[in-house]
C-alpha cells in the first residue's frame, strides 16, 4: 500500500485526466446546458441554494473544481469572481473552455495545483468563501492539512461551504447490491483504499486505460474538529438522504428535484451526504 500512498497524486491525476473530457461530453454533467442556457445553474448548486443563501459580491475559491460546472454556477448565483483550483490539467482545460463558451465565464479564473499546494498559487486570506463540491475530500490523505488550507485562504470572517458524500456512505461496500454492509474504514487511516474500476460514474462508451484510484475516508468528527483546530467556528451541519449519483448500484433510485439518488428502501437508515458550513474566526 505504501507505493500507492507515495504516488497517489500521479495515479489519481492520470485517472482524472482521462475522465475530464468524457465528463464534459456526458449528459451526467450540466456542461452543455450551461453553455446553451445563460441563466442555468447546475443541479448540484441548485440543491445547495437554500443553505448557501446569498453570495452576491463574494470572491470565492472553489477547491477541486473539476470541469467547473459548479464554479460557473456560483458566478451565476451572484459571486463577484470565482477561482477554480484543480490538480488535473485536462480538467482545467475543460474548465477554461467552458469559461470561453458560457455567459458569466469572464468572472472565472483557474489555477492548476493540488489542494495542499493551494497557498503556493493563491494569495492567503483573500477569499470571502471557500466552496468545495461533492466527491472531493476522498482524494486527500489528511483532513487536518485540508482544514488548515481552507482557513489560510479565507479572510477573517470568511466562510466555508461544503456539501460532500457522507463518510458513512463511503464506508459501505458498494460491491454488495442487496444490503448495506460496511467494508471500508469510516475513520481516516494512514494507508489508503485502492480501487480498480473500468469506468466512471457517468454514462460513456470510452474504454479507460487509467483505472486505479487512491482514496481515503474521513469521519464527520475528524472533519469538524480539524476545522475547529484551524481557527474556524462551525455554523451549520445538515445530513441529507440523497446524493447526486447512483452510489450503490441496485439499491438506489433517482428522485426529483435536482437529479438526486436515494435509497429505494430504508431511507432513514443511512445518511448519504451532508452540508457543512464554518466561519473563520476574526
TrEMBL record:
Task: Name the Pfam families on file.
Answer: Methyltransf_25
| UniProt superkingdom | Eukaryota
Q: What InterPro entries does UniProt report for this protein, alphabetically? A: Methyltransf_25, SAM-dependent_MTases_sf
Instruction: Name all Methyltransferase domain ranges.
Output: 63-158
List each coiled-coil range.
none
Q: What is this protein called?
A: Methyltransferase domain-containing protein
Q: Which organism is it from?
A: Zasmidium cellare ATCC 36951
Amino acid at each position: 500500500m505504501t507505493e500507492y500512498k507515495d504516488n497517489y497524486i500521479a495515479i489519481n491525476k492520470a485517472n482524472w485526466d482521462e475522465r475530464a473530457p468524457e465528463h464534459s461530453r456526458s449528459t451526467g454533467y450540466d456542461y452543455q446546458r450551461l453553455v446553451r442556457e445563460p441563466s442555468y445553474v447546475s443541479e448540484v448548486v441548485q440543491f445547495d441554494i437554500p443553505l448557501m443563501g446569498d453570495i452576491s459580491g463574494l470572491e470565492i475559491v472553489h477547491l477541486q473544481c473539476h470541469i467547473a460546472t459548479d464554479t460557473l454556477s456560483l458566478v451565476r448565483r451572484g459571486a463577484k469572481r470565482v477561482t477554480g483550483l484543480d490538480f488535473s490539467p485536462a480538467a482545467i482545460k475543460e474548465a477554461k473552455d467552458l469559461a470561453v463558451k458560457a455567459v458569466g465565464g469572464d468572472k472565472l479564473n483557474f489555477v492548476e495545483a493540488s489542494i495542499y499546494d493551494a497557498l503556493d498559487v493563491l494569495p492567503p486570506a483573500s477569499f470571502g468563501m471557500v466552496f468545495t463540491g461533492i466527491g472531493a475530500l476522498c482524494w486527500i490523505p489528511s483532513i487536518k492539512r485540508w482544514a488548515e488550507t481552507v482557513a489560510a485562504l479565507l479572510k477573517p470572517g470568511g466562510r466555508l461551504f461544503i456539501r460532500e458524500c457522507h463518510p458513512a456512505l463511503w464506508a459501505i461496500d458498494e460491491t454488495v447490491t442487496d444490503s448495506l454492509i460496511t467494508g471500508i474504514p469510516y475513520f481516516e487511516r494512514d494507508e489508503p483504499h485502492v480501487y480498480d474500476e473500468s469506468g466512471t460514474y457517468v454514462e460513456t462508451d470510452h474504454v479507460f486505460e487509467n483505472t486505479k484510484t487512491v482514496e481515503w475516508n474521513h469521519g464527520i468528527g475528524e472533519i469538524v474538529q480539524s476545522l475547529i483546530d484551524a481557527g474556524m467556528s462551525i455554523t451549520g451541519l445538515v445530513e441529507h438522504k440523497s446524493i447526486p449519483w447512483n452510489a450503490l448500484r441496485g439499491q438506489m433510485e433517482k428522485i426529483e428535484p435536482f437529479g438526486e439518488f436515494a435509497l429505494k428502501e430504508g431511507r432513514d437508515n443511512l445518511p448519504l451526504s451532508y452540508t457543512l458550513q464554518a466561519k473563520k474566526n476574526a
